[in-house]
Amino acid sequence: MHCPNDRKMLLNILVACFTMVALVAPQATAQHCGCATGLCCSQYGYCGTSAAYCGPGCQAGPCSATAAPPAPNKVVVGNIVTAAFFNRIIGQAGSSCAGKRFYSRQAFLKALGSFPRFGRVGSVVNSKREIAAFFAHVAHETGHFCYIEEIYKGIYCDRSTTKNYPCKPGKKYFGRGPLQITWNYNYGQAGKSLGFDGLNSPETVSNNPVIAFKTALWFWRINNLQSKLLAQGFGATIRAINGGECSGANPGAARARVTYYTNYCRQFGVAPGRNLYC
């Protein structure tokens, strides 16, 4: 892929290129559920031990709270993610960017149909903050929707997870899509949840823009980023997506994410809230 010549755009792309998100999801096993002793079955049918699994909506196991999650509010996400908002982001990508011909607002909205709680929990302010946070990370990871795939196309096979998510010969599980989903176990879990063969055909994420957006929204959901944002602030979402940028390890990258977030919050007419950094 060719990076655009614009200096500002180049800086954003380089940040995205060299601070590639590992997207290490919580070690969870998709069982739907049938979890082993000591593991909780989350509201989405995954096994694990964190609050995302044992908290609200937990179906079985040592649940810490069994109350159903609150009903979605009446926010229409498409009325916030307008064509003008989306186009302002993708319009900053260079004309040679493959992502400019791949990503679209229509694909996002179609993917959104599978995630009815995204951007629809709590107050309207909460909704706008969540949408701003999601697109802040997307803009950072893809360079304003320039990149579909990461530049360094490593294999990303985590041998400790191959029993449940075997790495297939000749397949690479490098970053793809709006949040650059990475690693065999993420492809395996996302594929099972979304209805595609993530282990045998990880390239589906690069070829189908709706699936690409679905993997990003899936990652957002399975890592409980909605709750992290609303309870702890934007900084908690940076730590969940790329903890290597936190605690001063990569202040430029963290600052870029915060800049996107505060900018989008301003466009939506809401304050960004507290704890912006990690």
**Biggest beta-sheet profile:** 3 strands, antiparallel
Helix coverage percent of residues? 40-55%
Q: How many angstroms separate the termini? A: 31 Å
CA-based gyration radius: 18 Å
Low-confidence stretches: 1-32
Query: How are strands sequenced across the largest beta sheet?
Result: 1-3-2
Name the quaternary structure: single chain
Overall spatial form:
globular
Strand content: under 5%
Task: Kindly state the number of beta strands.
Answer: 3
Main structural class: mainly alpha
The average pLDDT value, as a whole number, equals 87
Number of helical runs?
12
Order of helices and strands: HEEEHHHHHHHHHHH
Keywords:
278 residues; disordered N terminus; globular; mainly alpha; 3-stranded antiparallel sheet; carbohydrate metabolism; 43% helix; 12 helices
What does this protein look like?
InterPro entries: Chitin-bd_1, Chitin-binding_1_CS, Endochitinase-like_sf, Glyco_hydro_19, Glyco_hydro_19_cat, Lysozyme-like_dom_sf. Residues 1-30 form the signal peptide. The active site is at residue 141. One of its GO terms (biological process) is cell wall macromolecule catabolic process. The chain has a three-stranded antiparallel beta sheet. The chain is mostly helical and 278 residues long. It has helices spanning 7-18, 51-54, 77-80, 83-90, 105-112, 124-142, 184-194, 204-207, 209-222, 225-232, 234-242, 251-268, and strands at 29-30, 40-41, 46-48. The two termini are 31 Å apart. It has twelve helices and three strands. A hairpin with a 4-residue loop joins strand 2 (40-41) and strand 3 (46-48).
